[in-house]
Amino acid sequence: xxxxxxxxxxxxYPFFNVSAQPNPSNKNTxxxxxxxxxxxxxxxxxxxxxxxxxLRAGVRxxxxxxxxxxxxxxxxxxxxxxxxxxxxxxxxxxxFIVDYSRISGNNRIDxxxxxxxxxxxxxxxxxxxxxxxGYILIVxxxxxxxxxxxxxxxxxxxxxxxxxxxxxxx
Length: 170
Known about the structure:
The chain is mainly beta and 170 residues long. Helix content is 9%, strand content 56%. The protein is built from 2 helices and 9 strands; from the N terminus they run H-E-E-E-E-E-E-H-E-E-E. The chain has helices spanning 2-12, 100-104; strands spanning 28-35, 41-52, 55-65, 69-71, 74-79, 85-99, 111-125, 132-144, 157-169. Strands 1, 2, 3, 4, 5, 6, 7, 8 and 9 form a 9-stranded antiparallel sheet that branches. Strand 5 and strand 6 (85-99) form a beta hairpin. It starts with a helix and ends with a strand.
């Protein structure tokens, strides 16, 4: 379990400013999301990239681990420039693994891999001081369950979910 957290931190390390000087632009955020891109919850890191026209754009990645699920949400977010009320959009995908052997209690390996493709739209509140933020998203999900050896035989499943998040600027 410690190895998974180490890998997550190692992937995030290049995004952090390791200088002793404070970063006044607040481009990095760490946030907890319930629902949203992950099946249950996820701890995410977001790095704001250059503005895209009048929108603020950012890339995000995260990890969500429960007793039976391992999820890895990735995405691109777009935020309108109005302050403190924003329109937030996200385009993402989440590969995840469900371990059915933990659910049934048997000792044999029984896992399944899924991929969710997710567009989302919602409301974000972010005070002018840019220290914290909160949001709610509506996320329709296109879930694919690729079968080993039959990638073309995938039957998509559509779901509608909500996402709630709260985070801090680093």
